[in-house]
Amino acid sequence: AIQKTGLKDAYGADFLIGTAISNHTLETQNSELLGLIDREFNTITAENCMKSGEIQPSQGNWDWALADRFINFGVEHKKTIVGHALVWHSQVPGDFFVDANDNQISRDELIRRMDTHIQTLMERYQGKVSIWDVVNEAIDEDQGWRQSPWYEIFGSAEYMERAFHLAHEMEPDAHLLYNDYNMHNPGKRSFLVDVIRDYKRRGVPMNAIGLQGHVGLDFPNLTEFERSIEAYAAEGMRIHITEMDVDALPVAWEHTGAEISALEEYAEELDPYRDGLPAAIEQQLTDRYVEMFEMFIRHRNKIDRVTTWGTYDGESWKNDFPVQGRTNYPLLFDRSRQRKPAYYAVADLGSQT
Ligand code: G3I
Question: Which residue intervals define the domain GH10 in the entry (predicted)?
Answer without folding.
Answer: 1-349
